[in-house]
Write a structure and sequence with these properties.
The chain contains six helices and ten strands; from the N terminus they run ααβαβαββαββββαββ. With 221 residues, the protein is of the alpha/beta class.
Length: 221
């Protein structure tokens, strides 16, 4: 298993920071879904700068979160203070989720658990299963083997599903795990799979259009 390495969030400043303060679009749907199910205890794996953590807290969930990055934890605490919400936040490694068994009603993690290798992803999924209550749900994303990163021949290969990112920026040197549908089915065999979506995102970098693919996965214990 590769050693965990978080984002270098201290590199995310100015205009680029603004994006990381806006909640992801699926969180609006999840709030409605999980409120109807009367879920309260929510774990956000990998808070980053706190965009989803703070949003869930403002909707009335008891939010627990952590990140391996000291800078991320510090800035999320500052964001929570600015927004006048209370969260439970720790600095920790997602390979060993710092909460007890059967304590969470729901788990959310966007573009986080892919930052390890295949062995690591399996360990994290087992940890998610451990902390979820029975009937608890988890929504997370995984990088797709159709995306550009998996096709980078110059990036060091860790295993059949994992490469080490080499382009400059906050993710330099961070392992990236990529999946396909068959692998997802196997990884989540202990869960009831509710929904799997394969989503292509478009974005512009230096006037060039780039794309990336992610799997969005909703499962129940």
């Amino acid at each position: 298993m590769v050693k965990s390495k978080g984002w270098e969030w201290e590199k995310v400043k100015g205009e680029s920071e603004k994006m990381w303060k806006e909640p992801a679009e699926e969180t609006y749907y999840l709030v409605q879904r999980w409120e109807k199910q009367e879920k309260k205890e929510l774990l956000d794996i990998g808070c980053g700068l706190g965009r989803n953590t703070i949003f869930f807290a403002k909707q009335g969930f008891n939010v627990h979160t952590f990140d391996i990055s000291e800078d991320a934890v510090k800035r999320t605490k500052e964001f929570a203070k600015e927004e006048n919400v209370t969260i439970d936040i720790k600095q920790a490694d997602m390979l060993n989720i710092p909460y007890g068994a059967n304590t969470m009603d729901c788990v959310y993690s966007r573009n986080v658990i892919s930052h390890t290798d295949t062995e690591g992803v399996k360990k994290i999924i087992s940890e998610i299963y451990r902390v979820l209550k029975n009937e608890g749900e988890c929504y997370l994303t995984l990088g797709s083997k159709d995306t550009w990163g998996y096709k980078q021949k110059s990036w060091p290969k860790v295993d059949d599903n994992t490469k080490i990112r080499q382009d400059e920026g906050p993710e330099y040197g961070v392992p990236h795990f990529y999946a396909d549908y068959e692998l997802i089915i196997d990884l989540f065999k202990d869960f009831k799979i509710i929904d799997i979506k394969h989503i292509q995102d478009f974005y512009k970098v230096n006037d060039k259009i780039s794309t990336s693919y992610h799997y969005h996965i909703l499962v129940k214990k």
